[in-house]
């Protein structure tokens, strides 16, 4: 399966979701490769730190930022792995569009902390609709999309309102919403700077449960 962690808005947790999914999947025995398609190279830097610290299991990470060769290189890498996890750039760019075409599943993190995050996500979903229809018309493999409520705090009015808007967007654009919501937890940032996923780091049990639940949902969607 090819999974893209994508949103046109930066700072919503794309890289965090990609890294933690890759870690969780590799610990479950899948052969996983990370694709860093973002020029900031945040996931490549995370991968370098993982290698420097000798963290096992190892997760290969390649940087693919040339839109002209992106699709071809993704196909070549996918032939060698069970799962590719693509960390996409935070923009409506040729790379982002090609990643959506290449993917079987889009994981779309949406921050509930305010700002324009939810409305920028609507622009992404409009583009996703075009791609989904084009792939159907061409007889290509279908692509699913699921929104992921991120940086969430229960019983905070702003966060509850944003989560409700995410549900409305999912209904409008006929996409899914993951049942699990990722909390606004320090553990995600601490694990990141160590080259780890939260299931490998520290004692934040709630963060580990969240990522395990997200992975379980993703696998169920992929195999249904």
Descriptive account of the structure:
- The protein has 224 residues and is α/β, with parallel strands linked by helices.
- The protein is built from eight helices and seven strands, in the order E-H-E-H-E-H-E-H-E-H-E-H-E-H-H.
- It has helices spanning 14-27, 42-52, 70-78, 94-102, 117-138, 157-173, 186-193, 205-223; strands at 2-5, 32-36, 61-63, 83-87, 105-111, 144-150, 176-177.
- It has a seven-stranded parallel sheet with strand order 3-2-4-1-5-6-7, with helices on both faces.
- Helix 5 runs parallel beside helix 6 (157-173).
Q: What would CATH call the class? A: Alpha Beta
Helix content: 40-55%
The first-to-last residue Cα distance is: 13 Å
Alpha-beta classification:
alpha/beta
Main pleated-sheet profile = 7 strands, parallel
Low-confidence stretches: none
Beta-strand proportion: 5-15%
In CATH terms, what is the architecture?
A: 3-Layer(aba) Sandwich
Counting DSSP E segments of at least 2 residues, the number of strands comes to 7
Annotation field: number of helices: 8
Mean pLDDT: 91
Count of folded domains: 1
Shape: globular
Protein name: AAA family ATPase
Pfam families: CbiA
Domain CobQ/CobB/MinD/ParA nucleotide binding: 6-195
């Amino acid at each position: 399966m090819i999974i893209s962690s994508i949103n046109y808005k930066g700072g919503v947790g794309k890289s965090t979701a990609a890294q933690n999914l890759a870690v969780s999947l590799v610990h479950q025995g899948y052969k996983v490769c990370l694709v860093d398609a973002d020029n900031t190279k945040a996931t490549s830097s995370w991968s370098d730190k993982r290698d420097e610290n000798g963290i096992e299991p190892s997760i290969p990470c390649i940087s693919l930022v040339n839109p002209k060769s992106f699709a071809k290189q993704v196909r070549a890498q996918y032939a060698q792995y069970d799962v590719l996890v693509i960390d996409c750039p935070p923009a409506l760019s040729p790379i982002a569009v090609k990643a959506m075409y290449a993917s079987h599943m889009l994981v779309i993190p949406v921050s509930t902390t305010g700002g324009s995050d939810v409305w920028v996500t609507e622009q992404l979903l409009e583009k996703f609709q075009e791609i989904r229809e084009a792939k159907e018309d061409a007889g290509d493999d279908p692509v699913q999309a699921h929104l992921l409520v991120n940086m969430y705090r229960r019983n905070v009015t702003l966060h509850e309102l944003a989560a409700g808007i995410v549900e409305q967007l999912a209904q409008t654009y006929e996409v899914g919403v993951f049942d699990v919501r990722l909390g606004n937890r320090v553990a995600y940032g601490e694990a990141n700077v160590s080259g780890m996923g939260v299931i490998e780091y520290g004692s934040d049990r709630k963060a580990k449960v969240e990522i395990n639940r997200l992975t379980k949902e993703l696998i169920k969607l992929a195999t249904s």
